[in-house]
Design goal:
With 341 residues, the chain is of the alpha/beta class. Helix content is 53%, strand content 11%. It has two domains: 62 residues; 254 residues, 3-Layer(aba) Sandwich (Rossmann fold). It contains 13 helices and eight strands. The protein is elongated, with a radius of gyration of 30 Å. It starts with a helix and ends with a helix. It is found in: Membrane.
Length: 341
């Protein structure tokens, strides 16, 4: 198919040379002018309408060869971000998850990344995770993906030392992972000011999240909202020329009957969990409300897994944090493509 500029050149050539050919046939001047005029009008209309017919033919061909939604590679990457949490659960014999088979999710081509794929994606990256026990469980899910069982068994006791930070470097892949114990929001704000220096290197991925300790010890949702807003302001004050990929680890579904102390059952209620969720939304720290952090919705994922996935009503089986990790990794794939483009 010829582009419109080439069509114009072709039309001009026809208008110039066809009358010369007609003159060679010894036609009368009147007939030459008549044929030239008709030819000019026809070509003028054809050149101006051709792009529309080409577009229509392109759409018809697309409808024939792509009758279903186009594959992920043909979609703007950001259009797939809202579908990352479209998860389906099965519970027989054990809880397991997969991305929903609906058309928009299927067209995005999400993958459950294996060890080699995740190693390539994260190669040379510094991953900083700060928060409470939920954040520690996300780090465990990451280590389970990146390490072989023998290596994992040797590092897991250090990861779960009570109320402590944790650091590991996977030298052969250049991956550095830092977990910083930050059970209160103020702890996260302080570490952003202390650990993220205005000189390279900067973390490539940051996961932040807290709230369980605040809910247990303060029980004041407005105060929690103010503290989360402080985290948002600290993020915006970072002087990194390129902000890291940033995620917010949401609070889990709470199963009151399984909470293991009277204080937890009294204070960590569904109503308070809802109030804390509203405060996070009000701060606009999350990407969907214009903020800098993408939500990893542990509440949604843990609700899908169900009460059988938790022993203490607040910490869930590894399958929940694996789902959150895979959502994060697929978001990194999407955002990395956007930055390249």
């Amino acid at each position: 198919m010829l582009p419109s500029a080439q069509l114009a050149i072709f039309a001009a050539s026809v208008v110039l040379f066809v009358p010369m050919g007609l003159a060679g046939l010894h036609l009368s001047r009147t007939k030459m002018l008549f044929f030239s005029g008709i030819l000019f009008i026809f070509l003028f209309v054809a050149v101006h309408l051709a792009p529309y017919f080409l577009s229509i033919s392109h759409l018809l061909l697309a409808s024939i060869f792509f009758p279903s939604p186009p594959p992920y590679s043909l979609l703007p990457p950001s259009s797939c971000l809202p579908f990352l949490h479209r998860i389906s659960w099965t519970h027989v014999p054990d809880p397991a998850w997969s991305w929903d088979p609906s058309a928009p999710v299927r067209s995005c081509g999400f993958q459950s990344l294996s060890n080699p794929d995740a190693s390539i994606l994260l190669n040379g990256s510094w991953i900083l995770v700060a928060g409470d026990s939920q954040a520690r469980l996300l780090v465990l899910a990451l280590l389970r993906l990146l390490l072989d069982p023998t290596s994992l068994a040797s590092v897991e006791p250090d990861l779960f030392k009570r109320h402590s930070d944790y650091h590991i470097a996977i030298a052969d892949r250049g991956i550095k992972i830092d977990f910083l114990w930050a059970p209160y929001e103020r702890n996260i704000t302080d570490l952003l000011a202390r650990n993220i220096q205005p000189v390279p290197p900067y973390p490539d991925v940051m996961v932040l999240g807290s709230g369980l300790w605040h809910m247990l010890h303060f029980t004041n949702s407005s105060h929690y909202g103010e503290a989360v807003n402080g985290i948002k302001e600290a993020v915006f004050s970072l002087r990194s020329p390129v902000l890291p990929h940033m995620f917010w680890l949401g609070l889990p579904t709470l199963i009151s009957s399984k909470l293991n102390t009277p204080e937890k059952r009294e204070r960590m209620t569904d109503a308070r969990l809802e109030a804390y969720g509203r405060e996070v939304a009000r701060t606009k720290i999350l990407r969907q409300s214009g903020g800098p952090l993408m939500l990893l919705d542990i509440r949604w994922l843990s609700r899908g897994c169900g009460s059988q996935c938790t022993d203490d009503g607040m910490h869930y089986n590894g399958v929940v944090y694996n789902a959150a990790l895979q959502i994060m990794l697929n978001a990194l794939v999407i955002e990395s493509q956007q930055r390249i483009e």
